[in-house]
Design brief:
single chain, mainly beta, six-stranded antiparallel beta sheet, globular
Length: 243
């Protein structure tokens, strides 16, 4: 098998929500904006790109039976929940909350500058688990940074209850980019900033991606795919063995 394109979501085709304090773009169906063709990609239920104005944010609300990941790109967000967890998630930090049987939380930008973040929801592989919370700082922000690893628990990655791995990938200008060698069959790339050209190994099939674009693809081996860029690239990579 060579590279197979499964879904392509252009930035300007995403669902949009705008309030006085929030500018949000949704790669998949969210709230009252629904499209059965865009309800999910495998176990990925939500990828929202949010810009939250200073001194505002999401008031206390309930989540259950969802793995919720927050990746802060710029600024900071303050988290408080019903497990008595509280803290600030800064740029290049990642939070994971397993909502399980139910957890109330709030996310507020209590600083004087905008906060930009990606909020991601992943279906869990087990229902009604005990809720939990954790966060880490990405130590080496350049290259491939594994941030979610369901295969093991250690001090450098976060764990979620699903067979999916997630990387935050930031590359300085490189004509050729090497994705993590351990990526699995089904993958989603979400471009945070920059441009990317994804090609099959025969260079017969290709797709160009820009800031905000998302692409779901299938491969049988890392050698099936060739990735290039002519500028700096920041992206989030999701990888799973089945969808």
């Amino acid at each position: 098998m060579s590279l197979k394109i499964l879904k392509f979501r252009k930035s300007n085709e995403r669902f949009k929500s705008k309030r006085e304090w929030l500018d949000s773009k949704h790669s998949f169906s969210f709230a009252d904006q629904r499209d059965p063709l865009w309800d999910n990609f495998g176990k990925i239920r939500v990828i929202n790109e949010d810009i939250i104005s200073p001194y505002s944010g999401f008031s206390t609300h309930l989540h259950s039976n969802m793995e919720i990941i927050t990746i802060v790109i710029k600024g900071e967000i303050t988290h408080r929940d019903s497990l008595n967890n509280s803290g600030i998630i800064h740029a290049d930090e990642v939070q994971v909350m397993s909502s399980g049987t139910g957890i109330y939380h709030s996310e507020k930008n209590e600083s004087n500058t905008d906060c930009k973040l990606f909020q991601i929801w992943i279906y869990p592989n087990v229902q009604d688990l005990k809720p939990s919370y954790n966060q880490i700082k990405i130590k080496n922000i350049s290259g491939n940074n594994l941030i979610i690893d369901s295969s093991k628990i250690n001090n450098s990655t976060l764990f979620i209850n699903q067979d999916i791995s997630i990387w935050r990938c930031k590359y300085k200008f490189l004509n050729k980019i090497y994705l993590p060698s351990e990526i699995k069959r089904y993958n989603w790339v979400q471009i945070v900033k920059g441009n990317l050209l994804i090609k099959d190994n025969n260079h017969k099939l290709y797709k160009s991606l820009s800031s905000g674009d998302g692409l779901g693809f299938e491969i049988s081996d890392i050698s099936d795919i060739d990735i290039q860029s002519d500028n700096d690239v920041d992206m989030i990579l999701f990888s799973m063995s089945k969808i």
